[in-house]
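Quick one:
INPUT:
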């Protein structure tokens, strides 16, 4: 029998989904329509959910930022689950709000430099620039093209962020999204990483098999490795 000290610890890195959670300006907020209720005499309680698929912690499909008629940009249902399940590395990047994370912003251990950096195929980046999902701040940090290309050289296949987007809110040309598409990297956005120590974990953040859709909410979990 495993001792308590050796048992894996779970970190739930998904924000709570309720009507008070903010969504991208202009997108569809979360609402619940109750069709029938046991407390009112029905045999079951039955609800309908209305919301953007980019809700809370979510996985972007490449067709969200790439034209599938011109490039390889599949929907979220076609994305391999391997992108969202397996070993991952959580890294701090304490940058000012409204800036883009560069490779030099990554906080590494004292005996590591960028040249010798070794990370898992899935990397989650904590910027701490979007602290409250119920109070939207538009000056959250984004990712630089240089960082994405650098992580691609390290074999990274999935990048997750603790902000609503890998690009800045006011960005129109979406350079981070384009670099991610070019490198065939998957995106996780809207993660809650504030209580997670940097290090290695197992990531479990499976999207729903939504055919044709450009994203899916996920219940994102980190599990400590023995």
């Amino acid at each position: 029998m495993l001792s308590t000290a050796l048992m894996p610890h779970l970190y739930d890195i998904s924000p709570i989904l309720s009507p008070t959670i903010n969504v991208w300006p202009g997108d569809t907020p979360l609402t619940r329509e109750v069709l029938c209720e046991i407390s009112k005499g029905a045999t079951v309680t039955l609800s309908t959910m209305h919301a953007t698929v980019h809700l809370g912690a979510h996985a972007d499909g490449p067709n969200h930022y790439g034209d599938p008629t011109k490039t390889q940009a599949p929907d979220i249902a076609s994305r391999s689950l391997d992108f969202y399940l397996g070993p991952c590395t959580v890294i701090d990047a304490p940058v000012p709000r409204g800036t883009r994370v560069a490779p030099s912003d990554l906080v590494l251990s004292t005996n590591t430099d960028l040249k010798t950096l070794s990370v898992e195929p899935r990397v989650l980046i904590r910027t701490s620039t979007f602290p409250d999902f119920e109070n939207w701040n538009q000056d959250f940090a984004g990712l630089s093209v240089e960082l994405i290309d650098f992580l691609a050289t390290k074999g990274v296949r999935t990048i997750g962020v603790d902000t609503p987007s890998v690009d800045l809110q006011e960005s129109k040309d979406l350079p981070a999204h384009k670099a991610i598409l070019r490198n065939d990297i998957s995106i996780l956005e809207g993660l809650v990483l504030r209580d997670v120590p940097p290090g290695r974990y197992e990531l479990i953040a499976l999207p729903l098999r939504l055919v044709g859709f450009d994203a899916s909410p996920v219940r994102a979990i980190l599990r400590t490795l023995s």
